[in-house]
Amino acid sequence: MDRRNWIIVGAAVILGLLAVYLANAWFNGTQERQEKIAEQQRLVNIAVATRDLEFGAPLTRDNVRLASWPANSVPTGAYQNLPQLLAGGNVAIRPIAQGEPILLSRVSARAVLSANLPLDMRAVTVPVNDVTGVAGFVTPGDVVDVLLTRQIPGDGASGSDKMTSIVLENVQVLATDRESNEQNTDPNANKTATLQVDTIGAQKLALAREIGSLSLALRNVKNQTVGATGVVTSADLAGGRYYIRSRAPRQTTTTQQTVSTTIRQPSAPAVSAPRRPTGPTMSIFRGVQGSNQEVPRYGF
After folding, report:
1. Which of 133, 165, 201, 299 could form a Cys-Cys staple with 128, CB 3.0–4.6 A?
2. CATH of 43-108 among 3.40.50.300, 3.90.1210.10, 3.30.2090.10, 3.30.830.10
3. Rounded CA gap, 30 and 285, in Å?
């Protein structure tokens, strides 16, 4: 076999090996894609609600069933064993919508608040109204800041000198007196709100209720930033540093000149004192009236 034939045989072998390699790569890629598709299409059974469940609703076979769910997107805490879920008389402690998976965090064996509070946490109720309660839009599950408005302490403060400070931040609302349903967004006024706080927070709320009025500031549930400080007073408001002094009644000061007028009465005729006699006198009586007459001396 001459040299030309050897070159042709070598080229054929190289091309064959390259074709085999490319074929294996293609088949391996196809197999991996099929396995991934099969994994995505693999389904498991989890417990879901067959109708809307409100707070405290018992879980029974009438409102719970098993449904197929993609295996790679099963929520954490989902029940895959229906008898395990229904055993023990579990009830819903959060609203569950129809078709929504029933999670461990949304059910409990006791539908009481104390059984669902985290350790070392307390539930404290504060009074609110249509203004301090954000017009009724504060619902269970929301996160709020608690503000305290009170009189500025000090002997020099007047009745209009107020201050507002932040008592607690990022506090979860457990319940309101309206309804324990986070799906209800109708603006109905609340009279009370129950908050989840620690021991120190419970003491602060108890004291704040006695010294001023409390207000709730609704915040985004994703905003977990805390540490806001500072106090807002009446002087911080627009125009709060302007004031008007009290004015005394204006008096008309007219200089009046007092004119001293001396009224002179007509002077009476001057009465001269009777002349004292220098010589001997004698008394002469005419009737009952008498008079003294001077008698001149002889030779004078």
Report:
1. 133
2. 3.90.1210.10
3. 179
Strands 122-127 and 143-151: unpaired
The structural domains of the chain, with segments of one domain joined by +, span: 43-108, 117-233
pLDDT tens string 230-261: 788 877 776 666 555 666 666 555 544 444 44
Q: What is the pLDDT of residue 260?
A: 47
Better-scored residue on pLDDT, 212 or 246: 212
Is 248 exposed, middle or buried, given 0-12, 13-18 or 19+ CB atoms closer than 10 A?
A: exposed
Q: Which three-class secondary structure state does DSSP give residue 110?
A: coil
Strands 91-92 and 64-70: unpaired
pTM above 0.70, yes or no: no
Which burial class, exposed, middle or buried, applies to 192 when counting CB atoms under 10 A from its CB (0-12, 13-18, 19+)? Answer: middle
Give residue-wise pLDDT tens across range 68-117: 888 878 888 888 888 888 887 788 877 888 889 998 888 887 666 776 67
Question: What's the CA gap between 183 and 190, in Å, rounded?
Answer: 16
234 with 162: CB under 8 angstroms? yes
CA separation (Å) from 275 to 118, 160, 294, 296? Answer: 130, 92, 11, 15
